[in-house]
Amino acid sequence: MTVDAVRGGVPEHGRVPKYYTVKTQLQNLLAELGEGALLPAERDLAAAYGVARSTLRQAISELTMEGRLRAHRGRGTFVASPKLIQPLSLSSYTEALREMGHVPSRRLITEERLPAGSLAGDLAIDPADEVLHLERVLLADDEPLGLESTYLPAGRFGDLMDGWDATGSLYRHVADRYQVRYAQATERIETVLASPREAQLLNTNPAQPMLLMQRVSADQDGVPIERVRSLYRGDRIGFVTRLTG
Fold first, then answer.
1. Does residue 106 share a domain with residue 166?
2. Higher-confidence residue: 11 or 223?
3. Does the residue 245 lie in any domain?
4. How many angstroms separate the first and last alpha carbons of the chain?
5. Does the record carry Transcription as a key word (predicted)?
């Protein structure tokens, strides 16, 4: 396959699927319409592009999965706002979104204590020791973006919830209450599909690709602080990092 073929999205044999041509035309239309605009009716678009409505729907479906379009039942399909692009760093979700001009918040779903079990190795504790589990929906401007499950050693952070508003920054709370600084982390990123429960909490389709990020954070002395599993909506958020050699 040539570089030009890769760049243009055209397969080596040169035959472009009809829906892909329509998708390209729709992308140009979205740029003209602008953020928040209502997409014209399917029958009108299918007629304008000279394709079957099933072909048009496939193109619209891909653009919706990519986060370029937003479907609202009973109202229609609208041009979506650009994805939030968050830096991969040790700064908190709260601080990162505020710097981008958005209003961050969280909704507490679960607070419980559990035996560490398989988490023990990551947290440098015994399997029988307890961990504090916090599950929170991450929001930006009241829109669900992610679902975060955080596990902390209960022996170290057992009174974490006392007098703390769980809608706020955990990083700041840990620093203020325990004088513990997040200094290093190991993170793994992969794509997955959400479970029905996760999709419901995030107000998205179970078929929507998600970004799964699993992190183990440690303090300035290298002692583990937390193990975090974060599930992000692939249609609403992306990540950026700076690499140097």
1. yes
2. 223
3. no
4. 30
5. yes
